[in-house]
Amino acid sequence: MGTGELDREAHVAAGTEGNGGTAAPRTLAEALRTRGDEGLAALLRARPDLLVPVPGDLTQLATRAGTRASVVRALERLDRFTLQAAEALAVAPDPAPYRVLLGLMAGDEGDADIEAALPRAVGLLREQALVWGDDERLRLVRTARELLAPSPQHPSPTGLGPTVAEATAGMSPTRLQEIIATAGLSTTHDPVSAVAALTDLFTDRERMGALLDTAPVEALGVLDRLVWGPPYGEVTPDPTPPVRWLRDRGLLLPVTARTVVLPREAALHLRAGRAHRVPEPLAPAVTPSREYRPQVVDSTAAGQAYTALATVEELAKEWNEGGPAVLRAGGMSVRDLKRTATALDVTEQVAAFWLEVAYGAGLIAPDGEADERFAPTPAYDDWLALPAAERWARLAGAWLAATRAPGLVGSQDAKGRTLAALGPDLDRGAAPEVRRRVLTLLAGLPAGASPDPETLLARLRWERPLRGAARETGTDLRARLASWTLTEAELLGVTGRGALSAHGRALLPGAPAPGTDHPVAGHAPGHPRTATGHVPAPTAAEGSASDGRRAARAAVADHAGAAALLAPLMPEPVDHVLLQADLTAVAPGPLRRPLADTLAVLADVESKGGATVYRFTPASVRRALDAGQAAADLHAFLAAHSRTPVPQPLAYLIDDVARRHGHLRVGAASAYVRCDDDAVLGEILADKRSASLRLRRLAPTVLAAQADPAALLEGLRSMGFAPAAESAEGDVLITRAHAYRTPARTAPAPVPEGPPEPDTALLGAAVRAIRAGDLASTVVRKDESATPGGGGDGAPPRTSAAETLATVQAAAMTGSAVWIGYVTAEGAASQRVIAPVRVEGGFVTAYDHTADEVRTYPLHRITGVAELADDVT
């Protein structure tokens, strides 16, 4: 609904736009018929579940909007003050004038903030079809009233009990007369007038005040305990004098033999007319906890973004040979998660986060084999080829849109099962909405300011008070998601020192300018007043019902802006290292890809940080030689990429390992060792450590072993030798780092809680279809009551084949529209309004107002036809 339409529907203290002399709508369907197309589109956008499937007409739409599941979902999306307004309507008379609702919200003394904020709340309730009717007859839909109204089993959120009329239903007339007499009222001749007299007493401020002035102090104490709820209390068969005094005057009315209730009218007098103890018309402000220079925030976030990329790369390298096995129920085991955390040098919870980020970006996935394992995907190699800033934008975009919640890993579901990393039960539809909302609130703080977490959580609770706890036993899921978002954004480099970075802000199209999240008296932050003084409904940036779905689409879009802002802050890859005499090499920054890959084979990573330290060992040098490098190649590589001379100990190490590398040759016999120097073979046989290999000499230069070649290679290397494997042809086998990849996999799609938000094209088509269907179901036919089988009760018309043909031919000649009953090929009966264009060959070609397009209908499927009234166009 547009701002102008919302303003017309919202109440203005000086007066509202009326119905223009037309009769007030009697049902929600009639109220929806008075809306424009923008109003219907706004309803369908705010409540997309109403579109599945598209309603046939406005009556079906109204019926669906009143179903329990749909109303519960709509109530969950209301902010606290709008929900309080709905709760007040639930305890108000039905229908209730706007002034009565305002009195329940602001009380006898009034409140300027409430008076300014209430029009927006009523307009939002109207927009979402939870309230209908004009300002003199506001009606809360019946299902919402049942959900919010009080009962002994389900007390009202307002803490109010039943009315006097409801509480005295079934009470004996004699007892009613005793109550009104004790209260100082004149007796009546019937229970109805007695209830009305007691109600008038409780709603008359002056007389009610005089009655309470005579109450014992202890009785007033009893009322104080009940006034704000729950309004029910237990009594003994012989109550105390204060309770008896209240019961005798109807201030406590019996519900059962042992239970009494404070009637609603009496409670409202004690509350000075307020339905809620603490109305909250203003959204709590998110306050900064600390402020940093924006440059410091951006550089800190960029450093963490670089660490994020390095961590994901390290994770993929760990799984290059194939990662952990997939559990039968999905996900990875606790033991494998611990191993991954150890390899990444992080906690298990942080390791689960990086696993889920890589999985959400489509970089790792199960391989789908019989013995299913996790492994990098082909998309990981494409991702590696991107510039660093673009790689980060891909990760951040996937995280922002994902419905998976890594923070749940290790917790238990409703059945007591532990939730596994990469498992199937981590999707929470609210996750993308909460992430985007948290970042949007951070964007509203001054640049460089980190939020106070408590005020941030308070704001989120105000915006969605009913969400979260319903689906997570004993916990507020939205609060947990918000806390995880703050931690995850810092790990990913979206924030730095808790404050939103410039490149993080670029991930949020339409985010508020820094420093704009400050409450304005009378309305929620971010809700500018209109020229008439009204406050429009919350925008997408303020957390509309479809934030999560809108965020999911925005997050998978091209984040070129974020990558462009991050790129200058990322460290430039270097093409050199600094070799040191202690057999280490220091990389003064991120290394270029070919250099990093070669050095990772030639040396082991000893420490990470701003500068990575690599250590050369005999095993690492042998690994490079096994990969096909020669000693001369290694010397040339180090000389070309070192800014310092190659230390003599490192040169000696390479030459020494190369001299012995391949001197021994191991092949498959089951396995054998051959060497041109028979003295070396004699040394091996004499070594006690070779006993497990069960060697025997076949020739002066050949030993046979009963171990397999891999075990033989490992055994000889543990004895200090440098054997090389050889092929059946006698050539040295070159072992290169193996990169195992899964088949092509798509990134997992987000799993929203409900239907996705419809786009503009779908909304337009749905509104046209509903309008046309409503026209077909409500259009006036000529001589409806006199036409045999004419469907005077609204049923599709029934006519003979000859009458059908004659009527549609006449309509085609005159260019008029007719109402038809039609049976589809699937046997579904429907009714349509069509304008016939041509009738020939047993078919009628017509413009279908229901479908808003030209269609051709077989005449034999038309069950009947009726002309429209002359005033219908």
Would you write up a description of this structure?
This is DNA-binding protein. Residues 1-24, 509-544, 778-800 are annotated as: Disordered. The protein is an alpha+beta fold and 873 residues long. The chain has 6 domains: 3-148, no CATH class; 164-262, no CATH class; 288-568, no CATH class; 578-660, no CATH class; 665-725; 779-867, SH3 type barrels, CATH 2.30.30.100. 42% of the residues lie in helices and 11% in strands. The protein contains 35 helices and 25 strands. Strand 23 and strand 24 (853-858) form a beta hairpin. Helix 6 crosses helix 9 (142-148). The longest helix has 25 residues, at 294-318. The two termini are 26 Å apart.
Kindly summarize this structure in a few lines.
It is built from 35 helices and 25 strands. With 873 residues, it is of the alpha+beta class. It has six domains: 3-148, no CATH class; 164-262, no CATH class; 288-568, no CATH class; 578-660, no CATH class; 665-725; 779-867, SH3 type barrels.
Q: For the CA atoms, what is the radius of gyration?
A: 39 Å
Low-confidence segments, given as residue ranges, are 1-21, 468-474, 518-557, 784-793
Sheet of most strands: 5 strands, mixed
Q: What's the β-strand tally?
A: 25
Number of domains: 6
Q: Whole-Å distance between the termini?
A: 26 Å
Shape: elongated
**Helical residue percent band:** 40-55%
User: In order across it, which strands form the biggest sheet?
Assistant: 18-19-17-16-20
Percentage beta strand: 5-15%
